[in-house]
Amino acid sequence: MARSLYIDGRWVEPEGGTTFRTLDPATEEPIEEVSMAGSPEVDAAVDAARRAMYAPGWRGLAPADRAGLLFRLADLIARHGAELAALETRDQGQPLDVARNVSVTGAVEHLRYYAGWVTKLEGAVTPIGYPDTLHYTRREPVGVCALITPWNFPLMIAVWKLAPALATGNTVILKPAEQTPLSTVRLVELAEEAGFPSGVVNLLTGDGTVGRALVEHQGVDKVSFTGSTEVGRSIVAASAGNLKRVTLELGGKTPSIIARDADVDAVVEGNLQGALLNSGQVCAAYSRFYVDRSRADEFISKLAAGGDRLRIGNGADGETQVGPLVSAEHLSKVENLVNAGVGEGAELVSGGDRAGERGYFYRPTVFAGVTDSMVIASTEIFGPVLPVLTYDGEDELAALAERANGTEYGLAAAVWTNDLSTAHRLAADIRAGSVFVNMPPVPDPAAPWGGFKASGWGREMGRYALDAYTEVKGVFVHHGGGGA
Description:
Elements: E1 5-7, E2 10-12, E3 19-23, E4 30-35, H1 39-54, H2 56-59, H3 63-79, H4 81-92, H5 96-117, E5 133-141, E6 144-148, H6 154-167, E7 171-175, H7 182-194, E8 201-203, H8 208-216, E9 222-226, H9 229-238, E10 245-249, E11 254-258, H10 264-276, E12 286-292, H11 293-309, H12 328-343, E13 347-350, E14 365-368, H13 375-378, E15 385-391, H14 393-398, H15 400-404, E16 412-416, H16 420-429, E17 434-437, E18 456-457, H17 464-468, E19 470-478
Parallel strand pairs: 6-7, 6-9, 7-8, 9-10, 11-12, 11-16, 12-15, 14-15, 16-17
Antiparallel strand pairs: 1-2, 3-4, 5-19, 10-18, 13-14
GO molecular function: oxidoreductase activity, acting on the aldehyde or oxo group of donors, NAD or NADP as acceptor
Domain Aldehyde dehydrogenase: 11-474
InterPro entries: Ald_DH/histidinol_DH, Ald_DH_C, Ald_DH_CS_CYS, Ald_DH_N, Aldehyde_DH_dom
């Protein structure tokens, strides 16, 4: 039986005995059988997390000792980095260089960042109007947290959630996407080795029914979810039973605005990085490009040529720059959206088809002649598809934020210009959680991450994640004897 359910400090088998296969997206070959959690395992994991939440071994742990556990886990991930990167590449498909330098490195950095916060979680004394009364605040953990993660960066995004949740004293149940569970299983093995008390970290693998059971469970106090906007909406509805705290990092359709004064060669390089990292399977991937009409032909030709030069192949090959899409289902979705773009009259400049006979590979695809109303300009594709739109001159550039804001999403945006006033004006006017000026969309553990509008609720990373995983309690202490 697959070893992928971890509950109350033990690896267990599901009562139903059901398993599912995870596939290598580069070869379409099965990698491993993984356990499918059922209702008994969901209940057992929630019960274990609730008990651990109030057990002296976790609740009574000194902050420095809790920080030590996080530092120890970070060290273990770093020590096993090559193994984890190879596992992530095989299960998810991302190039090995991305798995090493983004996924594994990002996981280590996040754990160390939040380990440093553990001993700095402070309350405050607040002057209030009552005489002879001391008022102070305490930051306390929310409780049992269900951490539901996506398939595009399974290891790193699991740690994005796990690190602040544990730093603030919560207990957790990790539920990875069924397409890519293996690096999360290994992460939990390393957490066990690091010495976290039983029940503090639990793992349930399975499909969306497992995630939904956690969202609906009365014993879960918080849900943190990264994934599609459609599923995010269903989580909001399903969490209403006990009014769970919810953090959502959802879809995006990131606009990249290129001013006339920008260096086209540098812009093309930066936008290829921002659009094609992990084959475009990034929530903040640059996915619609607004270019001054006078520079459009040059930008489009260089963008298409740059995409054509990128090496497509198995991520395990160290020379690969563009790996496969994660699954046959997702490949079909990307193909359908590309066909919709052609059907609506967009000009297919490059790509537009699969690469190779096996594996879920798709060529970088550049469209010209795109308008804001086309499906490829408004729908999240989550693949290597680059639609180029145009605007006319400085007057339209000044008002371009309105077009950039013209989708339901607001996760990220990019501005490319040598004029700081243009950069600051557009950054202020665009409705997005993060704006990147003259750079690809690379989050940092110390900076807030999250979206406006249908791109989500709340913020992860930085000090803002501490708010997401804590409740603030006010304590009033009267000094005047037995009454107020």
